[in-house]
Design brief:
The chain is an alpha/beta fold. The protein is built from 6 helices and 15 strands. Helix content is 31%, strand content 31%. It is globular. Bound molecules: 1-O-pyrophosphono-5-O-phosphono-alpha-D-ribofuranose and uracil. 1-O-pyrophosphono-5-O-phosphono-alpha-D-ribofuranose (PRP) binds at residues 77-80, 102-104, 109, 111, 131, 133-140, 166, 192, 200-202.
Length: 209
């Protein structure tokens, strides 16, 4: 069974509260999402393997630790997942970045694929799939299936706000994928929006409404 990690550090809760407010504009929304993404990335990468390296400090020789290999890929689900990429890249500047384009059909709420471009060696990497909103879970579940079709076996899903329905769907469809989220909200409304949520993440990041 996949693990659900609730990353509710007080600083993250504080920043998320500002993001949720309808008074917050796109500039602040984007900046806060980047800041939270960096903080969440810190937890998501907590168990990455280290190896030992011999170095010389100005005071002498020592055996120190560094991250083993450079095998991380960040894959945002377009559009809103893009808002989490820069924060993660601040933490792991050498990560490769792929893109999966999905939008929800407004009537059926089913995801529709329109783009997929991934690093050529994606199957060898730990993939952090980013999307701030996990609502019905359809988009995340389909994106994970696309990654698995490319051979990925080590996938983590990073969300900001999740609905119980979306968590259940991803855990049922992909029991091997851990979910990291900053909040678990109450329910979905009839339009499959998260309540209380924060509205349409893509529109708020890019100012399209
Ligand atoms: C939003 C969000 C997720 C999806 C979540 O994207 O960013 O990708 O909906 O909903 P689900 O869990 O029910 O699939 P949207 O389709 O609005 O596209 P956008 O990011 O381009 O605005
Ligand atoms: N997509 C969003 O951007 N917000 C929601 O609440 C649900 C899906």
């Amino acid at each position: 069974m996949s693990k659900l990690h609730l990353i509710d550090h007080p600083m993250i809760q504080h920043k998320l509260t500002i993001m949720r407010s309808k008074e917050t504009g796109s500039k602040d929304f984007r900046e806060l999402l980047n800041e939270i993404s960096l903080l969440m990335g810190y937890e998501i990468t907590r168990d990455v393997p280290l190896d030992e390296v011999e170095i010389e400090t100005p005071m002498g020789a020592m055996v120190a630790h560094r991250v083993k290999g450079r095998k991380l890929a960040i894959v945002p689900i377009l559009r809103a997942g893009l808002g989490m990429v820069d924060g993660l890249l601040t933490l792991v500047p050498v990560a490769k970045v792929g893109h999966i384009g999905l939008y929800r059909n407004e009537e059926t709420h089913e995801p529709v694929v329109y783009y997929c471009k991934l690093p050529f060696d994606i199957q060898d990497r730990l993939v952090i799939l980013t999307d701030p909103m996990l609502a019905t879970g359809g988009s995340a579940s389909d994106a994970i299936s696309m990654l698995k079709e490319k051979g990925c076996t080590n996938i983590r899903l990073m969300c900001l706000v999740s609905a119980p329905e979306g968590i259940k769907k991803v855990q049922t469809d992909h029991p091997d994928v851990d979910i990291y989220t900053a909040a678990i909200d109450d329910h979905l409304n009839q339009d499959a929006y998260i309540v209380p949520g924060l509205g349409d993440a893509g529109d708020r990041i890019f100012g399209t409404k």
